[in-house]
Amino acid sequence: MTKERNQVWRLFASVKLALWLITLLAASSILGTIIPQHKAPEYYIQEYGSELARLFQVMDIVPNMYGSWWFVALLVLFSINLIVCSLDRLPNTWRMVVLDNLETTPERLQKMPLKAEMQINEEPAAAGERVRRLLAAAGWKTAARDKEGGVLLFSQKGAWSRLGAYIIHISILIIFIGALTGSVFGYKASIMFPEGETVEHLFDRKTGQPIPLGFRLHCENFTIGYYPNNMVRDYRSDVIIIDPEMFAEPLRTSIRVNHPLKHRGLTFYQSSYQPLNEFLIKVQNTKTGLERTAMVSPRHQVTWEEEGVVFGVTDTMADRMGRVHEFRIWFDSPGADPSTFGMKDKQNVTVQRPEADYSFYVQQRYATGLQVAKDPGVWIVYLGCGLMILGLYVAFMITHRRVWAYLSPADNGGSKLLLCGGSNRNKASFDQRFKELAQRLRQDQAIN
Amino acid sequence: MESAQLLNLTTFAYLASAILYVAILIFGTKNKTMGLIATLVTMGALLLSTMGILLRWNEAFKLGFGYYAPFSNMYESLVFFAWCIALGYLVLEYIYKNQTLGAFAMPFAFVAQAFAEYWPQWNQDLRPLLPALQSNWLIAHVIASFIGYAAFAIAFGMAVMYLAKARNVDRSGNPDGTGLFATLPPLKVIDDVIYKTIFFGFVLFTVGGLIFGAIWANSAWGTYWSWDPKETWSLITWFVYAATLHVRYTRGWSGKKIAWLAVLGFFSTVFTYYGVNFLLSGLHSYG
Ligand code: HEM
């Protein structure tokens, strides 16, 4: 039993399995980019024929391969592999990090990759103090221990850089946990609602079911901004959050592409819009300053009783998206014949009539489309990303460097100095630094 | 001077640089003047390209685009890609003090730049950024990814160099190579360059390509990962290089095997960068 357990453990502790899993994940991911995902069943039958389409369906390659049981199983195996492999090796690495490097023997020091030997005309204790000072001045703070009639000094930097790979591996697992959290506890939804309206529900993207918001969201205005060359610069919804539990006053804010709104764990993204066949018209008597605002649809007339004015939109010219750029307005007031005139969206036009001048403003009404995401896992994912950056930094930028200085009594009453060291990567640059360090020691008049 | 002219000139400067380095490779590194000229021409090309990019930025600003970054379409990204290769190569030349590397790096800068300038498919016009592209995360994402791509391209060049020299060494039996191959750095050094460049590229690609990309996607669409072909291919490329680092570090692979992985990784990189947009675009609605 334990033997079997051991075998399973060993399998999952092997980097070989990891390489196979990575290869399999990469290869199957390619499949999902070649066979389009998330299409209707008819699409696959049309593109690949009914037999191949059946096969794809049975193999769970369509419509969502990346969520299929076998792809998820690969990811699970990959995670287990990562956990077991790390647990298996961590103790050794940890021992390396906390290793008592003063426990070593002169014989082992002799085998270090970098070595320099020198003579000092002082007995080991005094020479040890001298070397300690010199090393400290060069940035290597040492610990010391008496050893076989001599003194051993040791200093190291970046021992924990050996943990870098583990930080990276843990970060991958954390990202998986975040993704899982998001898919279990979160949802994606959307709403489309016209300017001037208030919503209290969202609609789940998968099921289409309404989800209560818990507060009210009102859309004041939807605006499309343009560059001087008429390309779209910006989509913006000006909204009001009405949430007495959180804010005493309704909160006015806006949602733009790349600038989502966050409230109560929900994030609202500007994602689409719809021009409506309704128009906001503002008419003002320029003499008295009296004003009337109305929402009209084409060919419905509005009467402003106090002024005896009647107006309406008779015709519009729209682009392919349904955005109206020109209106034809019909207007009548006492004392003259009705007139019609043309005007552009969001423009002011003044009409002269016998009794007064009237200024006109017209604006098309839009509905704004918002994507809504509830993803309580996203912070876990970001935490994982941050850890991964940290791990990459530690693993790639920081080197574990060690320096020993061993002073043993020499025949002439002085001492012999053995300076040695090594690093776990960037060997060429540590070589250079080691040489410089030896050079620096030799400059002391007592050392040669 | 307009940016378009400067960037067009850059193409010829890269060409001159590539030719000079190939000449140095063929005629040997003895001639110091030629070496100096090659380095100066490369620096000049980099300067031209830098000015071209900055000027283009300025032109966009004058046209009233406001928020703009000159990395927003295929044309501009190729120009920047070539820029990264040239800069990366100069750094390598400085570190390794060896100009034979240039013949395996600068031709890529030239090809990328010429591809940008002369491929009829690209629209070179200045166009303002769509709302979704106006994001600092996107800019960081693009810059870091392209530095990563350039590192992978250089690793590929070095791998080709390694494989050519290794073949010569195997055939001639001479561990330093014969003729032209003898002037190339020792195999061990090339191996080290390949490994370090991949390392460097991997870090930037992870941080810039995957992490910043995910953050941008989340701020623009509300989903940090949606398995669209471009994302998926980035992941595949990432897997290839992660596997390369692991076989190197834990299984002690080096030399030819690593060189072949660098070649494979670069094919995956090119597909991620270019192939996805043009071969899979018919299938997927990737914007
Ligand atoms: C695709 C995801 C992975 C990434 C990005 C990754 C990344 C890394 C990195 C950057 C290193 C450091 C390499 C170096 O210092 O040269 C490393 C080391 C290592 N990785 Fe991974 N890794 C991944 C998956 C795995 C898996 C699934 C295993 C499980 C078996 C694994 C096992 C190891 C081992 C054993 C080391 C050496 C650690 C040491 O002894 O210090 N890796 N990994």
UniProtKB/TrEMBL annotation, chain A:
The chain crosses the membrane at residues 68-87, 163-187, 379-398. Residues 15-289, 355-434 form the ResB-like domain. Pfam families: ResB. It is a multi-pass membrane protein. The keyword Membrane applies. GO terms for cellular component: membrane. The keyword Ribonucleoprotein does not apply. GO terms for biological process: cytochrome complex assembly. This is Cytochrome c biogenesis protein ResB. It comes from Desulfurivibrio alkaliphilus.
UniProtKB/TrEMBL annotation, chain B:
The keyword Cell division does not apply. Its main location: membrane. One of its GO terms (biological process) is cytochrome complex assembly. It holds the Pfam family Cytochrom_C_asm. Residues 72-284 form the Cytochrome c assembly protein domain. One of its GO terms (cellular component) is plasma membrane. It is a multi-pass membrane protein. Coiled coil: none annotated. It is found in: Membrane. The chain crosses the membrane at residues 6-27, 34-57, 77-96, 101-119, 139-164, 198-217, 232-249, 258-276. One of its GO terms (molecular function) is heme binding. Keywords: Cytochrome c-type biogenesis, Membrane, Thylakoid, Transmembrane, Transmembrane helix. Required for the export of heme to the periplasm for the biogenesis of c-type cytochromes. PANTHER family: CYTOCHROME B_B6 PROTEIN-RELATED, HEME EXPORTER PROTEIN C. Belongs to the CcmC/CycZ/HelC family. This is Heme exporter protein C. It comes from Desulfurivibrio alkaliphilus.
